[in-house]
């Protein structure tokens, strides 16, 4: 990934990903304002820079976006009651004084059932559709008028 780029070039590409502005990215990476403006297009059209930016964006997407396997693993852990959730509980302290506490509890049965339903949908357990594979209907008008 961008092995042919020096540190300043990598910084410029990273700043471009962060800022979305090519000229500002070059300036922030240490290029002069004058050279940044004139080299902007040429720099970001460079094959190595493009590859570096594409690879970094792919890595960032993988970090931000859950994979299907990750979602299925999470739903399974919820269904099995291994996940916890935070809830606020108000307790009486006496003399009309209450105190709110944040506690951790296991996921409710309702949420566990919902996770099971989502998993079931994913694996096609709940299907109301009837597969009529191979059956065809032909209507022939052979009545003389």
What value does the Rg take, in angstroms? 29 Å
The CA-CA distance between the termini, in Å, is: 77 Å
Q: Major sheet: size, sense and barrel closure? A: 2 strands, antiparallel
Helicity range:
40-55%
| Total E-strand runs | 2
Q: Spell out the helices and strands N to C.
A: HHHHHEEH
Blueprint (SSEs and pairs):
Blueprint: H1 7-19, H2 22-28, H3 33-45, H4 47-64, H5 68-79, E1 84-94, E2 97-106, H6 109-122
Antiparallel strand pairs: 1-2
Helix pairs in contact: 1-2, 1-4, 2-3, 5-6
Short description:
This protein is α+β, with helices and mostly antiparallel strands and 145 residues long. It has 6 helices and 2 strands.
Explain the overall architecture:
- The structure is a single chain.
- By secondary structure, the chain is α+β, with helices and mostly antiparallel strands.
- The chain is 53% helix and 14% strand.
- It contains six helices and two strands, in the order H-H-H-H-H-E-E-H.
- A two-stranded antiparallel ribbon has the order 1-2.
- The longest helix is centred in the middle third of the chain and has 18 residues, at 47-64.
- It is flat.
- 9% of the residues are buried.
Sum up the structure in keywords.
alpha+beta, 53% helix, 145 residues, two-stranded antiparallel sheet, single chain
């Amino acid at each position: 990934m961008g092995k042919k780029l020096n540190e300043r070039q990598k910084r410029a590409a990273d700043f471009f990903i962060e800022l979305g502005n090519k000229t500002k990215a070059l300036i922030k990476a240490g290029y002069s304002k004058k050279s940044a403006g004139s080299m902007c297009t040429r720099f970001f059209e460079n094959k190595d820079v493009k590859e570096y930016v594409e690879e970094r964006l792919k890595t960032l997407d993988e970090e931000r976006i859950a994979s299907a396997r990750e979602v299925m693993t999470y739903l399974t852990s919820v269904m099995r009651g291994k996940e916890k959730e935070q809830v606020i509980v108000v307790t009486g302290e006496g003399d009309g004084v209450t105190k709110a506490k944040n506690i951790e509890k296991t996921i409710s049965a309702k949420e566990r059932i919902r996770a099971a339903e989502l998993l079931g949908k994913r694996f096609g357990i709940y299907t109301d559709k009837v597969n009529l594979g191979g059956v065809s209907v032909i209507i022939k008008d052979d009545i003389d008028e």
